[in-house]
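Design a sequence for this backbone.
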């Protein structure tokens, strides 16, 4: 339960940073999510990381 909440917090923190055009911070949040937690949609998160880094 706690792990799921942390994953959700990291995802939405990255989304908020991205919306605020803080692409480095978005990358950091999503990279932590991608590297620290088991995800069914790991490839999707990897794509978000690559998108944020492209700016």
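Sequence:
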């Amino acid at each position: 339960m706690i792990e799921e909440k942390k994953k959700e917090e990291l995802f939405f923190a990255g989304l908020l940073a991205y919306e605020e055009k803080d692409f480095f911070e978005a990358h950091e949040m999503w990279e932590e999510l991608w590297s620290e937690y088991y995800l069914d949609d790991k490839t999707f998160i990897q794509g978000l990381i690559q998108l944020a880094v492209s700016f």
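Residues 2-19 form the longest helix (18 residues).
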